[in-house]
DNA sequence: TATGCGTGGCA
DNA sequence: TTGCCAAGCAT
């Protein structure tokens, strides 16, 4: 009896070989062309995309856009750049001023980190935002995504920019799933690297274009495939839009959490010019144990500075 | 790797 | 009304 080996039953590998599920080299090139062409006519005119924004403007926008919608960032961004047009301008002021100017964007530790990043840029890079991915990554508040985004958008460098929009677009168009995994996987990074155009300028446009496609068309809740430049090759659509089958995507609760208490406490500090008495802080939350824990957390994070017994302020140093 | 960290709009 | 979602980072 003859045993047919599996390898004998399959046709010769196409050249070059590729992982299963992804487009061919020709398909990838078409993908680049179609998405980038769409971007050239559909891209929003956002202030940080204009030439006058510069690398600092791009960096400020990236900090503000971490987990925060564009519409809420726009006014704060404009005020920020008008007040602090260069990193050294921000670094020259107390960190508390950054926290105050951050307003209600949320996650105010980002303001602190942006201030610290401005100081590091001023000290270590002569006041110029670095164009090198590694140097960017070493800055406070700059992770893998932000480093790649600044290098790509501000300096035209070739990097895979893998944010939540891009991950969703790739999950649908290439992998055929409604949503990407909860946390970024090695497989996603490999895919992003493989899809990255070889040419630097094309890669930079591709990074912005795939993000924009996810933000405007291939949205989380209601994708508009009729407006999608690659709908005809989308694996998820071709598979009949199979629903997400993994564990439910847990949204973070907010009401009653320490996070909410921290927000209320910091709002008092932000909206007060100068030091604040304990009594003013105690007024925003009745439960004393949680209130104290939240306040201690803010102090530990450097968002609040005790100045005397029972007196607090935004950080001066 | 899972969790904590703000805020507000929308379905 | 409640839950989901919005260009993540640090630990």
Automatic annotation (TrEMBL):
UniProt-listed InterPro entries: DNA_glycosylase, Endonuclease-III-like_CS2, Endonuclease3_FeS-loop_motif, HhH-GPD_domain, HhH_base_excis_C, HhH_motif, MIG/MutY
Single annotated GO MF: oxidized purine DNA binding
Cofactor dependence: [4Fe-4S] cluster
Domain HhH-GPD: 64-216
EC number of this enzyme: 3.2.2.31
Keywords tagged on the record: 4Fe-4S, DNA damage, DNA repair, Glycosidase, Hydrolase, Iron, Iron-sulfur, Metal-binding
SMART domains: ENDO3c, FES
Group of enzyme by EC: hydrolase
Compositional bias per record (Low complexity), positions renumbered to this chain: 1-12
Biased composition (Pro residues): 13-22
GO biological process, one term: base-excision repair
Catalytic activity: Hydrolyzes free adenine bases from 7,8-dihydro-8-oxoguanine:adenine mismatched double-stranded DNA, leaving an apurinic site
Renumbered residue ranges of the record's region Disordered: 1-27
Pfam families named in the record: EndIII_4Fe-2S, HHH, HhH-GPD
Family per record: Belongs to the Nth/MutY family.
Name of this protein: Adenine DNA glycosylase
Species name: Streptantibioticus silvisoli
């Amino acid at each position: 009896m003859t045993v047919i080996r599996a390898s004998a039953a399959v046709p010769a590998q196409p050249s070059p070989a590729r992982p299963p599920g992804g487009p061919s080299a020709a398909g990838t090139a078409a993908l680049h062309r179609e998405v980038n062409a769409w971007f050239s006519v559909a891209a929003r005119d956002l202030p940080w995309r204009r030439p006058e924004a510069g690398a600092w403007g791009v960096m400020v926008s990236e900090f503000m856009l971490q987990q925060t919608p564009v519409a809420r960032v726009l006014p704060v961004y404009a005020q920020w750049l008008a007040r602090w047009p260069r990193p050294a301008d921000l670094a020259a002021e107390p960190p508390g001023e950054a926290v105050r100017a951050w307003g209600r964007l949320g996650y105010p530790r980002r303001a602190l980190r942006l201030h610290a990043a401005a100081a590091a840029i001023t000290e270590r890079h002569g006041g110029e935002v670095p164009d090198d991915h590694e140097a960017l990554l070493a800055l406070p508040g700059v992770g893998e995504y932000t480093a790649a985004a600044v290098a790509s958008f501000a300096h035209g460098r070739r990097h895979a920019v893998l944010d939540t929009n891009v991950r969703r677009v790739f999950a649908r168009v290439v992998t055929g799933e409604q949503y990407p995994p909860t946390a970024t996987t090695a497989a996603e990074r490999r895919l992003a690297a493989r899809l990255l155009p070889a040419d630097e300028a094309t890669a930079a446009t591709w990074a912005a274009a795939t993000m924009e496609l996810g933000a405007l068309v291939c949205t989380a809740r209601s994708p508009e495939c009729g407006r999608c430049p690659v709908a005809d090759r989308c694996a998820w659509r071709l598979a009949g839009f199979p629903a997400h089958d993994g564990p439910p995507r847990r949204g973070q609760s907010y009401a009653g959490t320490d996070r909410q208490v921290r927000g209320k406490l910091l709002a008092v500090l932000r909206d007060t010019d100068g030091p604040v008495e304990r009594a003013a802080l105690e007024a925003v939350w009745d439960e004393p144990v949680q209130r104290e824990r939240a306040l201690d957390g803010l102090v530990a994070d450097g968002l609040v500075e005790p100045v005397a017994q029972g007196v607090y302020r935004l950080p001066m140093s």
